[in-house]
Amino acid sequence: MKKFSAILFSIILVINAAGCKKEEASKTAANNGIINFMTGDVSITSGGNTVKANVGDAVTQGMIIKTGTKAVVDIHFSGSVIRILEKSSVVMKELIKDLASNKELSEFYIENGKLFSKVSRKLVEGEKFSVTSPTAVAGVRGTEFLVEEENGKSRISCIEGTVAVKEPEKADTDYVLVEAGKEAEIEKGKPVSVNDLKQQNLENIKRIKDEIKELREDIRRKFEEQREEIRKAVIEQKEANKQRVEDQKASDKANVEAIKGSAKEQAEQIKGDISGKQEETKEAVKQFQKPDVSGAKPEIKKFDIKKPGSEE
User: Fold this and answer.
1) Based on the number of CB atoms within 10 Å of its own CB, is 247 exposed (0-12), middle (13-18) or buried (19 or more)?
2) Which residues contact 240 (CB under 8 A, 6 or more apart)?
3) DSSP string covering the chain, please?
4) What residues have CB less than 8 Å from 25, skipping those under 6 apart?
5) How far is CA 119 from CA 8, 78, 249, in A?
6) 67 near 88, Cβ under 8 Å?
7) CB burial class (10 A; 0-12, 13-18, 19+) of residue 205?
8) What is the mean pLDDT of each run of 10 residues along the chain (312 residues)?
9) pLDDT digits over 194-235, tens only?
10) In this structure, what are the phi and psi dihedrals at residue 223, rounded to the nearest 5 degrees?
11) What is the CB neighbour count within 10 angstroms for residue 293?
């Protein structure tokens, strides 16, 4: 009995734990992105399958985005945009939104290459936007920055706001703040080095920013043009449908009139045929009721009747 009670208690604990996990999971949702610009060779790997990327593709947690030589791709999220530059491989490590608090948790892992990030709003407590690599962790609080990972070294360049950086294995208390106009270089086994942002890097980041801004304006303009084209197409289609309906009505009316005319002619012909048959029938009946017996009158012989006693 005690053994049964223990098993039952264990089952209840498992069910309650599963219920808690389900309830906890239901409080979060995917915070997916969308590709709104790309050039060159860009691929998406998801679930072991690799396909060519296209503008408009959804970007979800766990995907790996890779770019070839002279290729770039811009991915927009609800409150941020990232640009993956050429010869890069980036994992969408975490893309989650807390439904209860509406807070976003985003993390991107650079296997190699360069990733520019622009967070359009200031993050609140409990939110996360971080870029990690084999040698660095960069967390932000509303900023624009570039992370580069190459040959076991990383460089974080900050153009606006502040970036907190550290080595992956270091504790959170070891974060080093990198302010706007500064860049940090991290190499495994060496302390974080923070210096003034090199002019070349500054110009590169500004160029990336300007390109993204221009692209966003271009996308907006194209969207407006497409919307106007769609509106015109809808109006033209409505007019075409209206004309088609009118033409069909006219065609149907003509067909009905033709059918009516044909039916009337057929009715008149049938009526004439019936009248003719009726006359023929009447004549036949008359002939049947009054047969011609003029040639069928029998010949009656006359006999002489002699009185008794008379001689022939």
Assistant:
1) exposed
2) none
3) -HHHHHHHHHHHHHHHHHHHHHHHHTTEEE--EEEEEEES-EEEEETTEEEE--TT-EE-TT-EEEE-TT-EEEEE-SSEEEEE-SS-EEEEEEEEEETTTTEEEEEEEEEEEEEEEEE-SPPPTT-EEEEE-SS-EEEESS-EEEEEEETTEEEEEEEESEEEEE-TTS-GGG-EEEETTEEEEEETTS--EEEEPPHHHHHHHHHHHHHHHHHHHHHHHHHHHHHHHHHHHHHHHHHHHHHHHHHHHHHHHHHHHHHHHHHHHHHHHHHHHHHHHHHHHHHHHHHHHS---GGGPPP----PPPPTT---
4) none
5) 51, 10, 59
6) yes
7) buried
8) 46 49 63 92 96 95 96 90 95 92 91 92 84 92 86 90 90 88 90 88 80 62 58 76 84 80 76 73 66 58 57 52
9) 999 888 878 888 888 777 776 655 555 555 565 566 667 777
10) -65, -45
11) 7
Which residue carries 């009185």 as its tokens?
307
How far is C-alpha 235 from the chain's CA centre? 24
Q: What ranges do the domains of the chain cover? A: 27-205
Closest CA to 116 of 206, 176, 53: 206
Q: What's the N-to-C CA distance of the chain in angstroms?
A: 154
- pLDDT score of 163: 93
Q: What pLDDT shows up at residue 35?
A: 93
Q: What is the pLDDT of residue 94?
A: 95
Give the fold, CATH level 3, of 27-205: Jelly Rolls (2.60.120)
Residue showing tokens 């407590």: 125
Tokens of 155: 């460089």
In tens, the pLDDT along 142-159 reads 688 999 999 889 999 998
Query: What would the two tokens of residue 234 be?
Result: 């809808």
